[in-house]
Q: What sequence folds into this?
């Protein structure tokens, strides 16, 4: 169990609204550049948000993140 879960806050709630949006976008067949364009931010901003999401949900690949999102109703 992660620190977020043991503290009484679910991981899904620990993600910011933007992180949830980025996580949902990862499930699409698009590049980080395309996600950035859709969200009106830079590619580096998306990269930072993706890294934060991965850290918070305990994954290290896009496929794992997408699977986690689907299992938690974020996709």
A:
């Amino acid at each position: 169990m992660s620190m977020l879960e043991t503290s009484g806050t679910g991981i899904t709630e620990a993600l910011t609204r933007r992180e949830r949006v980025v996580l949902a976008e990862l499930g699409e067949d698009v590049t980080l550049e395309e996600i950035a364009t859709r969200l009106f931010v830079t590619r580096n901003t998306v990269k930072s948000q993706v890294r934060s999401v991965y850290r918070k949900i305990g994954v290290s690949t896009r496929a794992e993140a997408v699977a986690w999102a689907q299992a938690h109703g974020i996709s």
The CA atoms of residues 1 and 7 lie 10 Å apart. The chain is about 70% helix and 0% strand. Residues 1-9 have pLDDT under 50 and may be disordered.
